[in-house]
Amino acid sequence: MTALLEAKGLEIAYGEVAACRDISFTVLDGEIVTLLGANGAGKSTTLRAVAGALTPRRGTIHFAGHDITRLPSYARTQLGIALVPEGRKAFPFLTVRENLEMGAFKFRRETRRIDALIESMYAMFPLLGERRSQRASTLSGGEQQMLVLGRALMSEPRLLCLDEPSLGLAPVIVQDIFRRIREINRAGTSILLVEQNARYALETANRGYVLQTGAIVASGSCQDLRKDDRVKQAYLGRTTAR
Asked: I need a surface site. Which of 4, 17, 71, 150 has the fewest CB within 10 A?
């Protein structure tokens, strides 16, 4: 597999305060990569830099052979990057269908394509089809997470960036969301995952990077990371992950 995404030497700051320093990682075409770490470690900051919501102070980001370091977020969407932000952030006063249509902005002149994509989202998430005319604000947390996943997929991304998809959801809903994530990946979409539940993240991803105070302190296959004593003690408890 070739590198779909390659970040080198990223330094990302909020004003004068550096949140991440010398961050380098890759996402290969077709794989799931997870960024692990405690709150404030720099995971979401790194993800936002990939999606174009933040511009690195130093370093480079390449995607599918393009230097996207200074590229605005809408241009990254055109190239094939989609972000599902933390906290879901559906458009509350728009219907389910209208939210999905917003995700297909780059196909805005292709009505038939948008209709076909919406139907494919209803097939993937049947509850969305049942609630297509409801406002997003009336949906449960799990349904809203399905909606923002569907909205991101409407752009037919090559890379899906997920920021804390399990946050605030009941365990049974979390299991379903991660099953969907694996299905999305098997259908051909690469995934960069930031997730507070390290056990789920390591069971789902192919490889991982562990961040601590804005720097990468460990990396490797998820199988190896699950055996790493530092990872087990910090994120998995005393028992070995399944």
From this structure: 17
CA 42 centroid distance within chain: 14
Query: Does the residue 136 lie in any domain?
Result: yes
119 domain residue, yes or no: yes
Contact 141, 173 (CB under 8 A): yes
Q: Locate tokens 């990946």: which residue?
A: 185
Distance CA 67, CA 99 (A): 30
Range of the domain at 90: 84-156
pTM: 0.91
Give the position of tokens 């997470």. Answer: 145
Asked, for residue 213, whether it belongs to a domain, the answer is no
99, part of any domain:
yes
Q: Which amino acid is at 109?
A: R
Give me the count of residues in the chain: 242
Per-residue confidence in pLDDT tens, the chain, 242 aa: 689 999 999 999 998 888 999 999 999 999 999 999 888 889 999 999 999 999 999 999 999 999 999 999 999 999 999 999 887 789 999 999 999 999 999 898 899 999 999 999 999 999 999 999 999 999 999 999 999 999 999 999 999 999 999 988 888 999 999 999 999 999 999 999 999 888 999 999 999 999 999 999 999 999 999 888 888 877 776 443 33
* Residue 142 to residue 165: CA distance in whole angstroms: 10
**Is residue 147 a contact partner of residue 96, using CB atoms and an 8 Å limit?**
yes
| Residue whose tokens read 């305060």 | 17
> Rounded to 5 degrees, what are φ and ψ at 234?
-80, -35
